[in-house]
Amino acid sequence: MREIFKQEMQQLGDDLLKQGREAARSMEGAAESLKNANLALAEQVIDADKRIDALERNLDEMGISLLARQAPVAADLRTVVSALRISSTLERMGDLARHVAYVARGRYPERVNSGEVYDLLVEMAEHATIVGHRVAELLDSHDLELAERIEEEDSILDKLHQKSFSLILDEKQHMERQELIDTVLLARYMERYGDHGVSIARRITFLVTGIHAERNMSIGDVALGYEERQ
Amino acid sequence: MREIFKQEMQQLGDDLLKQGREAARSMEGAAESLKNANLALAEQVIDADKRIDALERNLDEMGISLLARQAPVAADLRTVVSALRISSTLERMGDLARHVAYVARGRYPERVNSGEVYDLLVEMAEHATIVGHRVAELLDSHDLELAERIEEEDSILDKLHQKSFSLILDEKQHMERQELIDTVLLARYMERYGDHGVSIARRITFLVTGIHAERNMSIGDVALGYEERQ
């Protein structure tokens, strides 16, 4: 029974890692399709999201089955419940990557923007991609240094998100209405991708150390500037 | 033991209902603050979000404790796991209501928009408020007619979301950059609030009937129009 249990826990971990890698690949592909107006890549990302969703459904079933048949306690229980949570979060990260790809595809054959705004969005996409990869590595290794790296990348994303608002508000930046919409949405998608990465990083940290990170407001909320504007 | 278990399950349900009512009140308050540039109400909504987050943390602990000590199986297990999920989703709905309130507060004493765009956003906020209330009622009654109502309201929100893009893209609508940002974000926040409501509705439906709703793409994704634009 114990041996089967260990195998099932291993399977849960393996599938979660697989899902994490898919979510990372998706943002990497979406970033590339944004940067270089790559339609084929955008389509791949959009398609790949079904796999991420399917992995979540499987993990769901496996996790619940494990809970039902093995009634794990203590650390094992927290691990299973955490796996279910992380899987939901990865599913959401896959959705956000897909949304980025939709924008890239919708504007094909043009790039979504140009100049400073383009540079900023490409930079955000690169940092989001790093978040994705670090999350996958963290799921694999449980090396908490990676959790810190993810928090740093998310901080950068929050700052870039704030900068995107400055650029948009600058009337000297000529932008068509479509570009404005796309910029607001893309910056938000990628900032949220970072937030989700941090959420996973904190959950793994909690699993490993038993300590909850302080649930404070996302820097991004403050960065939205709503609190400063009068 | 069984009696304690039943009490604990009841407590879980009661706290989830409390959280659902808070999430509904938050969107109602946010909607009102948007409609009438009500600063005090916006501040209340922003504050209330801490309560929603605290309820989620409590529910989390209670749920995991229940799983550890009582090792529920079958329907009870699915109920506890679902409660954890629903609580996460309600926490996210509270965040979205708070984001709507941030926008209202940031533009005070002006309203966020005027004319057609204002009317549309106020309409979306009303439908989002309905979603919130129906979700709370569904958590209370498990009456699946409410689940259908929620899906209908979400459809309306998706259509209004699509309409918001048409309005923004219409150059004849004069809009400052700030208004453009706020409109894109507000419409998205409220559309996502509807999506989360549907997610809870489907989970309750699954709990009651044992049948998974087809996990198809949100109408909102298509409504974004990215698939149609060339």
Automatic annotation (TrEMBL), chains A, B:
Single GO biological process annotation from the record: phosphate ion transport
Pfam families per record: PhoU
GO cellular component, one term: cytoplasm
Residue intervals of the PhoU domain: 18-102, 122-204
Subcellular location per the Swiss-Prot or TrEMBL entry: Cytoplasm
Keywords attached to this entry: Cytoplasm, Phosphate transport, Transport
Biological role: Plays a role in the regulation of phosphate uptake.
Family: Belongs to the PhoU family.
PANTHER family reported for this sequence: PHOSPHATE-SPECIFIC TRANSPORT SYSTEM ACCESSORY PROTEIN PHOU (PTHR42930)
Oligomeric form and interacting partners: Homodimer.
Name this protein carries in UniProt: Phosphate-specific transport system accessory protein PhoU
Organism: Flaviflexus ciconiae
